[in-house]
Amino acid sequence: MIQEKVRFLEEAAANGHVALNMTQYDGWLLRFSEGYTNRANSVSVIYPSVIPPGEKIPYVERCYAKHGLPAVFKVTDIDTELNSILENSGYLQVTPTDVMELSLENTDFGDFMTDCIFASDPKEWLPYYFRYEKIEDEGKQDIFRRMLSKVTPDTVYVSVVNDGKPVACASAAIDRGFALIQNVIVSEEVRGRGLGEKLCRALIAKVKEQGADHAFLQVVRSNEIALNLYKKLGFKKVYTYWYMKKVIAGADR
Questions:
Q1: Predicted pLDDT at 99
Q2: Which one of 45, 145, 216, 253 is separated from 99 by 20 to 30 angstroms, measured CA to CA?
Q3: Full-prediction pTM beyond 0.70?
Q4: Would residue 223 count as lying in a domain?
């Protein structure tokens, strides 16, 4: 049961955070996005394989080398065989991340939707997101815009308004009733005022309004503030993933 749940959420997460280019290889999904985020430049185990994992790794490494990228594997805690093979091949574990889920059946966060701007298109949302995430490089901004344009599930972009301007941003992609909550960021100037909680509760209310019956998210274990917030909202851990890398370069998100 847990294996089916993990594979489903991994697939839904890949649909909500889409790479610029993808290749399927014997049940593995290879993603390429010019090095922007590990999630969009890594290999995930999605479906059953026929070829032994150890025989597939050299091919994967060659594919990423053609793109000028190191091979990075997104490994979950049910991928024990692959993890062991990668460890024995010189790969190291980085950025352990918990995947957490919340049933929306008994949530009632509608009151938090005031002073929020909702949209299905990210055009007006993006400048604030880039500002608060401190993504100033135009090349990275362009990659992210192109990635968002490839998302096919229904999307929601939300901003919390304070003193007449957006100060917090988040988004969601709804796939088969499961809403991936992501891109959560609050301006440094207003942190500590509960706006992150308001942001998340408002987004959860909106995706429930649009038909989602579950929400899920990915949170780096070292981010204790975010972990505590999501636990407060009722999210519970389903499984953990991490990246296996030979070369640590760029963002480990």
A1: 98
A2: 145
A3: yes
A4: no
